[in-house]
Amino acid sequence: GAGYFHFYLLHNLGESRTQFFDDFDMWSFVQEKKRAGLIRHAGFSFHSTPEELEEILIRHPEMEFVQLQINSGDWENPAVQSRRCYEVARRHGKPVVIMEPVKGGMLADPPGSVKAIFQAADPHASCASWALRFAASLEGLITVLSGMSSLEQMEDNLSSMRGFTGFSAEQADTVEKARAALARIPVIPCTTCNYCAKVCPQEIGISGTFTAMNCLTLYGDKAAAKHQEAWLVDMHGRKRAAECVKCGACEQVCPQHLAIREELEKAAAALDQGA
């Protein structure tokens, strides 16, 4: 192997999680490893407010890059604040690694009203391609990370980025129209990171439940939503929403700051999970 990490990431800073990095002085740890030649560039991923990002970068100017959740759906989302966090990183001169450019797959298969906007602009480009290129069109990037689960998705991503030099004014306008249309639809903005699942004492399939609820919201098909829930929750050995005891542990670790307990209560009713 190379014998060193080219980019070494302190994972998931933000809110109470940041204190762990202070308590264990991970900041000094990465600098020691840099001096030893084991790390070339040290940075961190971040899920919180632009104000907290500003504070961290002021305290730790030695950090060389920031990994942020940036996509067209979250660009102006008040819970994520992609744009403002990106602007903070740029103001501090930190290059950015983009995660969640397709928002956990949600932007690859958006509602019909959103999809129609993209198809009218370019019938040959996938919705995922639009999402990926939106992220890649920003300045000051190291790379754009995209999770792929098939060869077809990888080929689409590669073809989308081959020779890409940025959006035209018309393409940027198309993305803005689609973003506005998507923002009008009240889906649960879960990215299936499953941090919540790791701390839930009831072992509830939270992200699977939310995927099923979004299916119900977007398509109005309860049978399809319940099928989604059966597969993503029951078949994966997780418990259903009705078994939530409202302890709130999930909400303490959710990068999206979702009102998980409230959404699980709604899901239990909508998906016929009566006691």
Structural features, described:
The protein has 275 residues and is of the alpha/beta class. The protein has two domains: 5-183, TIM Barrel, CATH 3.20.20; 195-270, no CATH class. Helices cover 47% and strands 11% of the residues. The chain has 13 helices and five strands. It has helices spanning 17-23, 26-35, 50-59, 82-91, 112-121, 127-136, 151-161, 169-183, 195-199, 206-219, 222-232, 249-253, 260-270; strands at residues 5-13, 39-46, 65-69, 96-99, 141-144. Strands 1-2-3-4-5 form a five-stranded parallel sheet, with helices on one face. Strand 3 (65-69), helix 4 and strand 4 form a beta-alpha-beta unit. Helix 10 crosses helix 13. The relative contact order is 0.10.
Number of separate domains: 2
Coarse shape: globular
Q: Kindly report the CATH topology of the largest domain.
A: TIM Barrel
The fourth-level CATH homologous superfamily of the largest domain is: NADP-dependent oxidoreductase domain
Average pLDDT, to the nearest integer?
93
DSSP strand tally? 5
Helix share bin: 40-55%
- Return Rg in Å: 20 Å
Helices and strands: which structural class?
alpha/beta
Could you give the order of strands across the largest sheet? 1-2-3-4-5
Order of helices and strands: EHHEHEHEHHEHHHHHHH
* End-to-end C-alpha gap: 55 Å
How many helices? The count is 13
Query: What percent strand?
Result: 5-15%
CATH architecture field of the largest domain: Alpha-Beta Barrel
Contiguous runs where pLDDT drops below 50 for at least 5 residues? none
The CATH class label of the largest domain is Alpha Beta
